[in-house]
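Dear colleague,

Thank you for sharing your sequence with our group. We've completed the structure prediction you requested, and as agreed, I am returning the results in plain text so they can be pasted directly into your records. Please verify that the sequence below matches your submission; if there's any discrepancy, let me know and we will rerun it promptly.
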Amino acid sequence: MATLTPTTSPPGTVPRDSSPGRGDVSRRARRRKAFLPFLLLALPTGLVMLALGYPMARQLVMSFQEFGIAQQFGQPAEWVGFANYQAILTDTYFWVVTVRTLAFTAVAAGLTMVVGVGLAVLMQRVATGVRVALQLALLFAWATPVIAAVAIWKLMADHRHGVVNAVLSGAGLTGFDGFHWLQAGTTPFLIVAATVVIWASTPLVTLATYAALSQVDESAVEAAQIDGASTPRILWHIVLPIIRPVLILMAILQVIWDLRVFAHIYSLQQTAGNTTDTNLLGTYIYQTGIAGGDYGMASALAMVMLLLLLALTWRYVRILGRQGDLR
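Please find the predicted structure tokens below.
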């Protein structure tokens, strides 16, 4: 009867294991883990490129073409090079609208930040019931549709029965009895428009700032109070620098939103009956393209507006990037 003898390795050698080593498994696991974030980003990145990339590329191409009503019905578009941009940059009205838009954006975004941060600080110092009521009021203001908000402010600024004129006249100010805000000129019109924009934008700034303030380390504030620092100095030199990333982010968003504001201005213009003296870049692009049919010129205007927006926000985006994640 034959006997089976175990196979032995020569002395001094290590038996080979046919199964994969732990090092190989660990390396594969690390590679999969490193690849996972890119896999998760693939779908949203693809959707963003599909939703924004093609329209942006199409807009850039049209800005170098003569694209009007005829091209909408199939006539080939003629390439005109930089003629649209040259026409824009040599047009005096474009610069008037641009300066008006920049001034409007600076005032609206600046006041939104001041009012929003002030309300957030106030919410930290009031009773719980008052704070909850204020938060609910902000949420209702934020949730109000743009057209409904504009309609509310139209009624409030009405020259016959508006509460704004009644309050100003009741306070002893002359000249506001029957004053028509939307037809009295560019400045009164933009005051109403800025008020609507600020009213609609303040809730987000307030709630985001309040959330950031609630995360501030109380020990730093208490140390400053022990050293005898006043409340305004503590707020300015300790609290606001800590929440600076949130404030920068909110400021960037406000500049973006206010620079390209459209629905508020367009809706108010329907009542004012004047567009030439009240146009901002958003409504100017709409009137050139959709209303006027010159889509090539409107595309060039939109590209100039995009470059202007990048120039205004680039510095703050870099500051935010250097500070890393919001803490």
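Summary note from our side: The chain has 14 helices and two strands.

Kind regards,
the structure core
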